[in-house]
Fold this sequence. Notes:
The structure holds two protein chains of two kinds. Helices cover 78% and strands 0% of the residues of chain A. Chain A is mainly α. Chain A is globular and about 70 Å long. In chain B, helix 3 (82-89) packs across helix 14, helix 8 packs antiparallel against helix 11 and helix 9 (210-218) packs antiparallel against helix 10 (223-234). Chain B has two domains: 2-77, no CATH class; 90-312, MetI-like fold. Chain B has 14 helices and two strands, in the order H-H-E-E-H-H-H-H-H-H-H-H-H-H-H-H. In chain B, strands 1-2 form a two-stranded antiparallel sheet. In chain B, a hairpin with a 5-residue loop joins strand 1 and strand 2. Chain B is mostly helical. The longest helix of chain B is centred in the middle third of the chain and has 34 residues, at 91-124. Helices cover 72% and strands 2% of the residues of chain B.
Amino acid sequence: MKRGFFLPFVAISGFLFLYIPIASLIVFSFNKSKLVTVWGGWSTKWYGELFTDPQILGAAWISLKIGVISASLATVLGTMAALVLTRFGRVRVRGLLTGMVTAPLVMPEVITGLSLLLLFVAMEALIGWPGGRGVMTIIIAHTTFCMAYVAVVVQSRLADMDDSIEEAAADLGAKPLRVFFDITLPMIAPALISGWLLSFTLSLDDLVVASFVSGPGASTLPMVIFSKVRLGVSPDINALATLIVVAVAIGITISWFFMRKKVT
Amino acid sequence: MTEAVQRSGFWRATASVLRKLGFSGRGLVIAVPTLWLLLFFLIPFLVVLKISVAEPMIARPPYSPLFVRGPDGGWDIRYTFGNYAYLWQDSLYINAYISSIRIAFFSTVFALLIGYPMAYYIARSPEPKRSLLLLLIVLPFWTSFLLRVYAWIGILKTKGILNAILLKFGIISEPLIIMQTDVAVYIGIVYTYLPFMILPLYANLVKLDDALLEASADLGANPVTTFFRITLPLSLPGIVAGSMLVFIPAIGEFVIPALLGGPDTLMIGKVLWSEFFSNRDWPVASAVAIAMLVLLVIPIMLLRLAQSKQEEA
Lengths: 264, 313
């Protein structure tokens, strides 16, 4: 197709469509007025309000804790699943594991949330565990859907990787565990880091699954945000969004810088 | 040298401890993720299936048991398809089902119409511009989905940014009512899932061989013919994969219709949510979940097929 006027126009409009909402959040987080259509002058008062809101701060702390723990668990479990699927040859549970690793990626969140809650309730009636719902049940739920993402990321890295080095190490007498920690692990480390970060982001962002499996006293950040914005625009949430965007932008820029350095 | 000896000693010791405990390393690596997913992913579906055939009860938990001890001391199985019959008879559920399919379908079409030219543009861009544009597509993934949907409230509401701009420039004389309508839901879904459409399309289009396009042009085909006879058919797996990655999550979407839609916006995810949280009818909520899964079987199979085609190419 010849380079005309049409393609750049659609592409630029598309990018504007993707970024204007984010830009509007940032701009209006500095608006003194509570109304989006009235510009009341620059102000940082919503940031002040954000940092003195005990409900938001408490929820942010809970969400960070859940995010770090579930991302770490998901990275370990997802890597194990990826190893089984790429390096273990013929394994009896292979088909089952493949299905269980890919299905969570396309499962609607309402179904994942409902099914896990019903499991927890049934298990509690049967064996007395998990004994109420809260942070721990959210961690289990997040680990489960995040490990699927980690498995996919690590699996594609393992599939691209030349396994002759691992074979050479094994031929030279290294035990499987040692081959993994000395050869495989350093080579898949970038995939583990991106899998961890992806899991952390997904966990930090999840509203639906957490709402189902959470209990009294364990409100995550998305749950607090949702109950606030359901009633309309609230400027301190704009301030929160701006902080998240800035954190993400810094993180991405740093990782991009390092990746470019490595390639060249 | 000594360090290497110490390290190999450490691994040997770890391995022997595990072996003594009756674990083979290999078996452990297979068992842990498999058991985790069995317990927390597969079995929960069986529980949903089981509760969808139970009767609602005022009890803890609020549904009737599947196995009941009969008078003769044996176990009786009690089940009912009443919840499914209820879904079928009450127009609310049928309408929510149809409206979810309609909203997901048209959102997918709009996302394809916007996403295809964007993916094409990115795939034909020279490096390093291409990597940068691709980064810009992926970047929104990393910021909060909930907050990005929320951003549209400020833009679309009656006293929002969009109406303020359109009124100021005299394009409209009355503010547009978009918030709390299906239009807002369409915008929200297309906006959220556009990157899911673009990435598989890009992955497909970037592999397109320029020689084919040149050959077509040399043989006298105009760019439009070349596009419809060469580019479009070759990118079919990308189109199917991208479309299913928009359609499948859109069907079960809860956050977007809850925040941007109005009380009339019926979507099956929202119905499931309110059945569970407001009506506390767990058996009906489970039956809704099973009905939603049935609806997704064909799209998920299409996605699998398209993805394996993509890998072959």
